[in-house]
C-alpha cells in the first residue's frame, strides 16, 4: 500500500440479541445447540477452554480481527464492549505467540465481558485461571505478541473456520464454542425443545437397557446391508 492503513477500523453499533433470547439459551449445552443448527456451528475442535471447570457461558459476539502476533484489536474491543459481550478474535490460527494473557483477561472481566475466544494462543495460564473468566484458545505458549495493528473490530470475521458477525450468540462449555447466527436465534430456540426432548427420551431407553438404535437395527436387517458370512 502507498499509504499506511488506519491502525484500527471499528464498527461500534450492531443489532444485539434480545435479553429473553439469551436467557432461553443460557443453560443449553453446545451439543444441543449444534443439533438445533442441523449439525454445524462449532469452531475448530482445537479451540478449547483454558479451565474446563469455568467454561460455560452464553453471550453476544463482539468480533475483532487481529492478524498473527498482534492483539491491538482485542484491547480496542474492550473500549466498546458491553456487559455480556464475548470478544471473539480472529488471529489466523497463528501459534507462534499468544494474543491473550492474564492482564487482558482481568481487564475484560472488569468490563463485564463474559468470555474471550480466539483461534490463536494464550499465555499466563495460572493468571487466567485466577481471573475467573472463561478463555478459549487453540493452545498455550509463553511467547508474547505486539499491539501494532492494523486490526478490525465489530466487522464480520472467520474464526476457527466459522463465519461470525457481531450480534451473533456465542455459547461455550467443556466441548468447545458454538456460534448461533443472529438470523437463526429464534428458530434455534424453537427447535431446542424437540432436540432436548428427543435426547432425554433416548437416554431414558438407554438406561433401561437399549443397546442398539432402532434405525440401525432396522438397517442391519434390510437388503441395504450385504453380509459376507
Give the SSE map:
Blueprint: E1 8-10, H1 19-25, H2 30-36, E2 48-49, E3 57-65, H3 72-78, E4 85-90, E5 98-100, H4 102-110, E6 115-118, E7 121-122, H5 125-131, E8 135-137, E9 139-140, E10 151-153, E11 157-159, E12 162-164, E13 169-173, E14 176-180, H6 185-207, H7 214-221
Parallel strand pairs: 1-10, 3-4, 4-6, 5-7, 6-8, 7-9
Antiparallel strand pairs: 2-8, 3-10, 3-13, 11-12, 13-14
Structure description:
With 229 residues, this protein is an alpha/beta fold. It has a single domain, classed as Ribonuclease E inhibitor RraA/RraA-like (Glucose Oxidase, domain 1, 3-Layer(bba) Sandwich). The protein has helices at residues 19-25, 30-36, 72-78, 102-110, 125-131, 185-207, 214-221; strands at 8-10, 48-49, 57-65, 85-90, 98-100, 115-118, 121-122, 135-137, 139-140, 151-153, 157-159, 162-164, 169-173, 176-180. The strands form three sheets. Strands 1, 2, 3, 4, 6, 8, 10, 13 and 14 form a nine-stranded mixed beta sheet that branches. The longest helix is centred in the C-terminal third of the chain and has 23 residues, at 185-207. The protein is elongated. It starts with 7 loop residues before the first strand and ends in an 8-residue tail after the last helix.
- Bin the strand percentage: 15-25%
Helical fraction equals 25-40%
The major pleated sheet works out as: 9 strands, mixed
CATH H-level superfamily title: Ribonuclease E inhibitor RraA/RraA-like
Q: What is the molecular shape?
A: elongated
Number of helices: 7
Order of helices and strands: EHHEEHEEHEEHEEEEEEEHH
**Which CATH architecture?**
3-Layer(bba) Sandwich
Our measurement of the CA-to-CA distance between the termini, rounded to an integer number of angstroms, reads 68 Å
Number of strands: 14
Radius of gyration: 20 Å
When the domains are counted, the total is 1
Uncertain spans: none
Average pLDDT number: 96
- What is the CATH first-level class name? Alpha Beta
CATH fold call: Glucose Oxidase, domain 1
Structural class, from helix and strand content?
Answer: alpha/beta
Amino acid at each position: 500500500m502507498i499509504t499506511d492503513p488506519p491502525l484500527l477500523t471499528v464498527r461500534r453499533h450492531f443489532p444485539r440479541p434480545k435479553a429473553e433470547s439469551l436467557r432461553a439459551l443460557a443453560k443449553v449445552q453446545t451439543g444441543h445447540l449444534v443439533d438445533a443448527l442441523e449439525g454445524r456451528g462449532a469452531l475448530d475442535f482445537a479451540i478449547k477452554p483454558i479451565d474446563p471447570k469455568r467454561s460455560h457461558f452464553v453471550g453476544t459476539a463482539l468480533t475483532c480481527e487481529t492478524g498473527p502476533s498482534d492483539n491491538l484489536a482485542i484491547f480496542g474491543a474492550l473500549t466498546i464492549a458491553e456487559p455480556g459481550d464475548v470478544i471473539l478474535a480472529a488471529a489466523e490460527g497463528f501459534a507462534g505467540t499468544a494474543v491473550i494473557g492474564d492482564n487482558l483477561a482481568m481487564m475484560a472481566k472488569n468490563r463485564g465481558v463474559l468470555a474471550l475466544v480466539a483461534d490463536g494462543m494464550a499465555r499466563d495460564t495460572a493468571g487466567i485461571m485466577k481471573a475467573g473468566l472463561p478463555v478459549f484458545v487453540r493452545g498455550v505458549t509463553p511467547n508474547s505478541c505486539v499491539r501494532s495493528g492494523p486490526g478490525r473490530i465489530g466487522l464480520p470475521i472467520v474464526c476457527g473456520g466459522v463465519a461470525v458477525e457481531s450480534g451473533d450468540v456465542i455459547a461455550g462449555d467443556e466441548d468447545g464454542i458454538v456460534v448461533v447466527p443472529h438470523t437463526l436465534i429464534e428458530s434455534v430456540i424453537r427447535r431446542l425443545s424437540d432436540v432436548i426432548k428427543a435426547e432425554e427420551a433416548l437416554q431414558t431407553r438407554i438406561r433401561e437397557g437399549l443397546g442398539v438404535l432402532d434405525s440401525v437395527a432396522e438397517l442391519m436387517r434390510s437388503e441395504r446391508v450385504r453380509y459376507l458370512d
